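Lab notebook, bench 4. Still working through the backlog of constructs that have no structural model yet. Next entry is a single chain of 307 residues. Request: give me the structure tokens for it.
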Amino acid sequence: MKRNSVKTGMLDQRNRATQRRRKHPLHSVEPSETKLIKWLKINAIDETDLGSINLTDYLRETQIFEILPEERLRQLAIYLEFEALGLLGKSGWEALKRIYKCALKLNENDEHVWLSMGISAHTMADAQEKAKDQKSIYQEKKYAILNALNIKPNWSRAHYSLGYLYYFQGKEQVALNEFEKALICEDDDNIHAWAQLYKAHCLHDMHQWEKALYAYKLVNLSVFNGYTSWRIDVLREQIAECTYKIGNKKEAQKMLIKIFERYEIEPSLAFNAMSISLWSLAKYLSPDLLIRAKIIEEKAFNKAINC
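Model written out:
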């Protein structure tokens, strides 16, 4: 699978995100479902049992909640994603898919089930060691998202998710089209921020520097907090590189030095960021800045492993 430009010098940024199993922003949970989620936490299912969960019993036990059965199954699959990642090969995905298929038998026109099925597929595909398994699960994601869009064509979340798939397959132009569709569909500040960010990534990877710079500056940074806050640091690095690429060398150098000063004060920030944009820019500007970047990365890495 093609590696795009948002990656670190030592570790691919996206692989790191997968290894830490950060939550994906697209699974939605409504307030009315919080009681079910609490129930799931109390009645945790061991990962060795994922493929043999009695779904009839689950639906019977959870009928105390005023939630449609297909939605209860969707929430079960989402909840079990983390455990499914621990299973070998495709078995984790097969366990989740079984739950989603059961939900679709109850209501094949539930766009939320189709979308969540697609998101889970992407999560599980990222964890596959065999390229053929990854490819086949990605195809299942595409099928699920297209079904969601057939039911609800103007859905920001679905267009974003489809663009996300194309982007990770190295199809930047097709991905860009989907992100732009996501941005003109119904209002959803959270998804619009992600779509705008990945629109900028596409333009960046296509070396359309001025357009990428403009797109990055339109990203709503307030959406990225907590476990996604590292993206703001990466974005700053990318803005600096784009600034250099359009000919503003002095301004780009000021930006990079400011980024270094921030990382030197808080090394943990550097560990979660330091994209290929930072490394490229340091290399372009001067050997001293490249050495400084390597020192920052080493300190950040040492701090992380000693925590």
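Notes after review: Residues 34 and 283 are 49 Å apart (CA to CA). The chain is about 70% helix and 0% strand. Flag for follow-up if needed.
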